Amino acid sequence: MRVLAIGAHPDDIELQCAGSLAMYAKQGHEVFMAVSTNGDKGNFDVEPSELARVREAEFRASCAIIGATPIWLGYEDEMLINDLPARLRFVDAIRSVNPDLVITHGPNDYHPDHRYTHELVWDAVTLAGVGNVKTEHPATDRQVTVYFMDNLGGIAFQPTEFVDITETIALKQEALAQHASQTRIFRDLLDVDLHDVVETVGKFRGYQAGCKYAEGFTKVEAWYRGLSRRLLPVGSGESRFIYKTTQNGIESI
């Protein structure tokens, strides 16, 4: 498969779904990581132009660890909006991959760049398959399924599917470690250890899914988005059981 994750900032994908992306890469699928903004406002003590350069380098180093192809969209941090030029840019980014599935932010995450990335991806996925919408790349030739990744800290997010990332949690932490500019600023300004966030949320989702570490996702249920097969990766110890949430709790399927 061809898997595309689109995050708002250079460390969002690593925080929320890098374990699953590393699983895809290990299993031989093609993985692409796209970032909407350049992250140039992410530190108070580094000039934006320099910080954008640093954060792009951090992102590319992270992609190399995961085994993903980077896509750098480069919009100004904190200033992303859902207008027509941006929508067509996202259409072309999706078309450049021609993915089987796209993973992105959900609609209720805390940051406006996250929410606008969600809107742009959701609007662009449909247009990406419309041939008469002209961009640099041709229209997608397949049904593109959309998954929302967890909110930061798992807040106000109810997964419907889980991925056991026990065998890739170390790779996820290593990828996050490439974003030294952000792990430092979260520690200095907020007294937050992002590596501990990954550990804690990974264990919490793992408790829900019946494994040591997991990542949670919600599959978009909308017209022309349904499939009869699972697209999220299955770990080596999961050949018999895949978990989903229902109104009655966690069930295997």
From TrEMBL:
SUPFAM superfamilies noted in UniProt: LmbE-like (SSF102588)
Highest taxon of source: Bacteria
Pfam family of the protein (one): PIG-L
InterPro entries (alphabetical): GlcNAc_PI_deacetylase-related, LmbE-like_dom_sf
Residue ranges the record marks as coiled coil: none
Name used for this protein in its record: PIG-L family deacetylase
